[in-house]
């Protein structure tokens, strides 16, 4: 059994570190962690999900009619060993939800899509409560979600003509994103983000250095930091901080050291590809850096073996 340990590095040659990293990667990539005791065990294949058949659903209905919600008895008499009592209970709850709110679990029909499109023409995007009244069994949340799906398929990329029109409308009406969005059949968020994209200004090295120093001094106090960047939005500043590790004084850049690799291996065993949790465990790397390390180095070493 292997135990976790911390390494303290003193004067070690670069060649020794490089060889150590290779050995560490090859060894760790062939093992999977047991979350309970941190022992290394063989990888476990995920259990195959078996779809419920119509015959099984009918059998479940008949069993409920005879025994009520006594899952252990139903399991022993009708479904053992394939469906556990817990799965029977879950399936019955889903069937009841479908019975109570069928529209939530039914696909939208072409006729319903046409009603939605006409509602958008009459009321405009955003008036979801009014549009939902055109349906018998659809509420405002469903209508809004469906419109996102439809509009993403039909509106496509912004054209140069739309870009020009967007800038003209903003110059005329200001940041009335909802009103402007109706002109393009786009959401307010889509309009705002595209406007931000059109007006983005490239960050300079001096700005990156300033952001680095300010975070080092004030931490992630964006209210204070924003005062030093009057021409940039909170969104722009935070996005730069998240996407560009060199602006974060607590994050390492460049090659991974042995301690970081050991921390990554342990965190990956526990959290898998949940990079935020992996990064929180390492503390000196961002989620994006952890993802890049996995795909560029860790995964390749597994495939090569």
TrEMBL record:
<dbReference type="InterPro" id="IPR001005">
    <property type="entry name" value="SANT/Myb"/>
</dbReference>
<protein>
    <submittedName>
        <fullName>1572_t:CDS:1</fullName>
    </submittedName>
</protein>
<dbReference type="InterPro" id="IPR017884">
    <property type="entry name" value="SANT_dom"/>
</dbReference>
<feature type="domain" description="HTH myb-type">
    <location>
        <begin position="203"/>
        <end position="249"/>
    </location>
</feature>
<feature type="domain" description="Myb-like">
    <location>
        <begin position="198"/>
        <end position="245"/>
    </location>
</feature>
<dbReference type="InterPro" id="IPR017930">
    <property type="entry name" value="Myb_dom"/>
</dbReference>
<feature type="domain" description="Myb-like">
    <location>
        <begin position="52"/>
        <end position="96"/>
    </location>
</feature>
<keyword id="KW-0238">DNA-binding</keyword>
<dbReference type="InterPro" id="IPR009057">
    <property type="entry name" value="Homeodomain-like_sf"/>
</dbReference>
<dbReference type="InterPro" id="IPR051575">
    <property type="entry name" value="Myb-like_DNA-bd"/>
</dbReference>
<feature type="domain" description="SANT">
    <location>
        <begin position="255"/>
        <end position="302"/>
    </location>
</feature>
<dbReference type="Pfam" id="PF13921">
    <property type="entry name" value="Myb_DNA-bind_6"/>
</dbReference>
<keyword id="KW-0539">Nucleus</keyword>
<keyword id="KW-0804">Transcription</keyword>
<feature type="domain" description="Myb-like">
    <location>
        <begin position="108"/>
        <end position="151"/>
    </location>
</feature>
<dbReference type="Pfam" id="PF00249">
    <property type="entry name" value="Myb_DNA-binding"/>
</dbReference>
<dbReference type="GO" id="GO:0042795">
    <property type="term" value="P:snRNA transcription by RNA polymerase II"/>
</dbReference>
<feature type="domain" description="HTH myb-type">
    <location>
        <begin position="150"/>
        <end position="202"/>
    </location>
</feature>
<dbReference type="GO" id="GO:0042796">
    <property type="term" value="P:snRNA transcription by RNA polymerase III"/>
</dbReference>
<dbReference type="GO" id="GO:0000978">
    <property type="term" value="F:RNA polymerase II cis-regulatory region sequence-specific DNA binding"/>
</dbReference>
<feature type="domain" description="HTH myb-type">
    <location>
        <begin position="108"/>
        <end position="149"/>
    </location>
</feature>
<keyword id="KW-0805">Transcription regulation</keyword>
<feature type="domain" description="SANT">
    <location>
        <begin position="202"/>
        <end position="249"/>
    </location>
</feature>
<dbReference type="GO" id="GO:0019185">
    <property type="term" value="C:snRNA-activating protein complex"/>
</dbReference>
<feature type="domain" description="Myb-like">
    <location>
        <begin position="155"/>
        <end position="195"/>
    </location>
</feature>
<feature type="domain" description="Myb-like">
    <location>
        <begin position="248"/>
        <end position="298"/>
    </location>
</feature>
<feature type="domain" description="HTH myb-type">
    <location>
        <begin position="254"/>
        <end position="302"/>
    </location>
</feature>
<dbReference type="GO" id="GO:0001006">
    <property type="term" value="F:RNA polymerase III type 3 promoter sequence-specific DNA binding"/>
</dbReference>
């Amino acid at each position: 059994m292997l135990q976790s340990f911390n390494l303290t590095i003193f004067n070690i040659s670069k060649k020794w570190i490089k060889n150590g990293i290779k050995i560490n990667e090859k060894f760790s990539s062939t093992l999977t962690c047991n979350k309970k005791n941190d022992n290394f065990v063989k990888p476990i294949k995920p259990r195959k999900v078996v779809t419920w058949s119509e015959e099984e659903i009918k059998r479940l209905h008949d069993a409920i009619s005879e025994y009520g919600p006594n899952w252990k008895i139903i399991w022993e008499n009708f479904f053992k060993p394939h469906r556990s009592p817990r799965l029977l209970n879950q399936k019955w709850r889903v069937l009841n939800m479908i019975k109570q709110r069928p529209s939530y679990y039914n696909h939208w029909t072409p006729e319903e899509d046409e009603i939605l499109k006409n509602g958008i023409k009459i009321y405009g995007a955003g008036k979801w409560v009014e549009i939902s009244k055109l349906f018998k069994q659809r509420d405002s949340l469903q209508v809004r979600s469906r419109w996102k799906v439809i509009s993403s398929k039909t509106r496509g990329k912004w054209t140069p003509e739309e870009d020009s029109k967007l800038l003209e409308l903003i110059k005329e009406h200001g940041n009335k994103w909802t009103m402007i969005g109706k002109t393009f059949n786009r959401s307010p968020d889509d309009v705002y983000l595209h406007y931000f994209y059109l007006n983005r200004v490239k960050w300079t090295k001096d700005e990156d250095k300033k952001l680095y120093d300010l975070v080092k001094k004030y931490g992630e106090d964006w209210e204070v930091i924003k005062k030093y960047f009057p021409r940039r939005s909170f969104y722009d500043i935070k996005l730069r901080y998240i996407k560009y590790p060199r602006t974060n004084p607590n994050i390492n850049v460049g090659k991974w050291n042995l301690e970081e690799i050991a921390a990554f291996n342990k965190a990956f065993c526990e959290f898998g590809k949940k990079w935020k949790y992996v990064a929180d465990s390492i503390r000196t790397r961002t989620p994006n850096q952890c993802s890049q390390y996995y795909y560029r180095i860790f995964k390749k070493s597994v495939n090569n073996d």
